[in-house]
Amino acid sequence: MTIKHEDQIERELKSFTNQPLPEKLDQQIYEGFANGRRYKNRWDVFKHTGLSVAALFLFFVLSVNYIPGFQKVAGDIPGIKKLVEMVTYDKGLQDAIENEYIQVIDKANENEGMTITIDNIIVDKRRLIIFTTLESTKDYQEVGFKSIQLQDKNGVTIGNHLLSVGTYQLENNKGSLMIDFAWNEDQDFTNELTLNVEVGEYNFESKEESERIKGAVPLSVKFPVDLEKIQLSEELIINQSVEVEGQVIHFEKLVSYPTRQVLYLSYDEKNTKDILQLVDLRLENEKGEVISREAGASINGNHRTISLTGSYFQNHKELNIVFSKVMALDKDKTSVVVDLEKSTLLEAPDQQLTLRDVTKTNMFGLENTLAINFNITPGIDGNNHFSLSGSFTDATGKIFHSGQQSSSSGEYSIYIEDQEYKSPLTFEVNYYPVYIEEEVRVRVKE
């Protein structure tokens, strides 16, 4: 399944790059999908496959009895225990359910022994979470999506979204799953939407993406949206700038939606470094409690739009933006240049990065593919977070796009089409284990 997005979305899910990468990650990219875990190969793989900010492959088994305040809601909305188990990773969604910010749908469609039911939805101007149940008359253990499409009441496809979704793990021919649509701009939904999907048995053993879904069946469900229940966003103007070792960051505003918060900031054009990430970015209240964490980001020049998990339904006396350090490179050291003909590394940010080799491969089931393989030495904190942009140029300046990227402990590979290039090739760095060590606090509300 391939979901296209705006090319400007380059550094999605930045919040997860401050977590240690597991060994054998390239294999986990396959295994995680089958086992209901989110992909760990989190750069252009997400952009090209539609996976994003929320770790929707995780199914939690925490009992609703241990989540304060949820008992009341559990008696009011059908199947709420199942909902709670599916959103325990996201405090913002927990708050939404606890405050009954959810719409009951109960609409279904059946075709060729497959039935998909839209049980409930949570929707605001930036996000639509669809809680679904799938039943099959066939003895499948796992069912996946070949395609997913969302249309308004006029039949117009609603695009330019990030999509997070996993596979149905069936027990007794039945399973539940969330489908999470997210947008970088406010949406004006119609009062009826249509979810179009193709579902079939998921074949994990196939490395060919086009062959992983067997016997795909089309299903289409129209469902109502109560527009009057979509609550408005709340905006806090910040208009503050901070300086970290001579690098200036402008914090503009924080906008809160029922399912997430969005922080707008920019980096000063006079900065001598390219800021790649504000590490461990979070919101804290007056007690120093973390109430919201980064869940994704998009980039447009020097401007950043950062999504946080949300605290819309909470009323805090004080809010502070906090981050522990800054990932940054000198602006003249953000390129990686590779001579394909000689298999040599001509330019890199520093000596931490070395070129291992350039090989032909069929990784991810891709044909006619070159793997450019690097080794990366951990930084002073022991981390070796490294990734490249999804686009690159040849010696003539012609722009190309890579397919997949993978990483394991100390190793990184980017996969490009095997064709004639005018060497050398130039890639831009997205992440690199070099940091400015300084904790920063910015008062948002007092």
Automatic annotation (TrEMBL):
Domain of life of the organism encoding this protein: Bacteria
Record-linked InterPro entries: DUF4179, DUF5643
Transmembrane among keywords: yes
UniProt entry keywords in alphabetical sequence: Membrane, Transmembrane, Transmembrane helix
Positions of transmembrane segments: 45-67
Domain spans labelled DUF4179: 44-136
Domain DUF5643 positions: 234-340
Entry keyword annotation includes Transferase: no
Protein name: DUF4179 domain-containing protein
Species of the source: Bacillus salitolerans
